[in-house]
Design goal:
Blueprint (H helix, E strand, L loop, with lengths): L1 H11 L4 E7 L2 E7 L12 E5 L2 E6 L5 H7 L9
Antiparallel strand pairs: 1-2, 1-4, 3-4
Length: 78
């Protein structure tokens, strides 16, 4: 997971966002970077990766409901 998050940071600079990685039907979530947030980033963005699709969402807007739906707790440890 650390490799995926590092690639996400390098390619998008998506710090402080919820990250949901979809890999062959499995859902993995975490938080990328610091919690500085970007209020302009309101839409879903999908970035291709070698492990699946990386979706970056606005955690304050709709992240909690999505993470609860998959029973996922984001972690800064990744």
């Amino acid at each position: 997971m650390a490799r995926v998050f590092n690639r996400l940071r390098q390619e998008t600079g998506a710090y402080g966002k919820a990250v949901i990685v979809v890999t062959h039907g499995d859902i993995i979530a975490g938080v990328a970077g610091s919690a500085d947030g970007d209020p302009a980033w309101k839409r879903w963005d999908t970035f291709p990766s070698e492990t699946g699709s990386i979706h970056v969402i606005d955690l304050k807007k709709n992240g909690p409901a999505i993470l609860r739906a998959f029973n996922i707790v984001p972690s800064l440890d990744e």
